[in-house]
Amino acid sequence: MSPRKATPPAEPAPAPGPRDLILRMLQHKSGMKQDVYQNIQALFAQLKEVLLEVAEDLEHEMLQRDKRVSVQYRDKGEMACELRVAGDLVVFHMHTNVFRLDQGHSLWKTSYLEEDEQRGYFGVINVYNFLSDSFKYNRERDIGYLVSRIFLNKEGHFFVQGKRQLGFLYNDLAGNRMDRELLRQVVYSTIIYVLDFDLLSPPYDQVNQVTVSEMNELNAGLQLTTGKRLGFRFQADVDDLT
Predict the structure, then answer these.
(1) How many domains does the chain have?
(2) SS3 48
(3) What's the confidence (pLDDT) of residue 242?
(4) Helices 180-196 & 31-65, crossing angle to 10 degrees?
(5) Closest C-alpha to 172, from 110, 118, 222, 117
(6) Which domain holds residue 126?
(7) Residue 93: inside a domain
(8) What CA–CA distance (Å, rounded) separates 39 from 43?
(9) What is the pLDDT of residues 115-172, one digit of tens each?
């Protein structure tokens, strides 16, 4: 009986070439970003519906209480919409790109992101606060402020980065899965923050000189820069982002 021939060891699989690496990245990473973008588009469409409902509800109620105070919603196209609340204008803007959370963020230390780093890619909705009069009188040099940012990932989990209550009420990424009622609560929190963020008179020394050009433009619309906090910088405010 002839001895069996030893089976030669299997040759290691060849390392993937550049083409294969590109195809894998397109399939997994780029595909994931498409999922995230579809999610943020769906969320923004739902946000528009919620904003309209909230505006109609508050406007109806204020007609019974004080007709001078108005709440109105306006759709500004695929990427933007706005909510006018009395003297404030809140602009919601959906970014067209998907972002990876910055590496220094504390959420990278959570098990939720450690288990799957692709959960750390987000679509973003930016929320800005302006004075309604800035647009009414075309005061192009007036200042608006970033109030918050809504981050949504491929699994529909979200967190909100922002000021005061907006910075701590919605920061549980693993536990927060966006739905219509939670989105309504985010809208309410945004309105409360905006109404509580008062217009301050600028320091006297900042406005004690006016050019002839500025004075000539007063009748066409006050051109002196106006904002709720002159000199305000979102990142440097006392209520730092989380």
Answers:
(1) 1
(2) helix
(3) 47
(4) 60
(5) 110
(6) 29-199
(7) yes
(8) 6
(9) 999 999 999 999 999 988 888 888 777 888 899 999 999 999 999 999 888 888 999 9
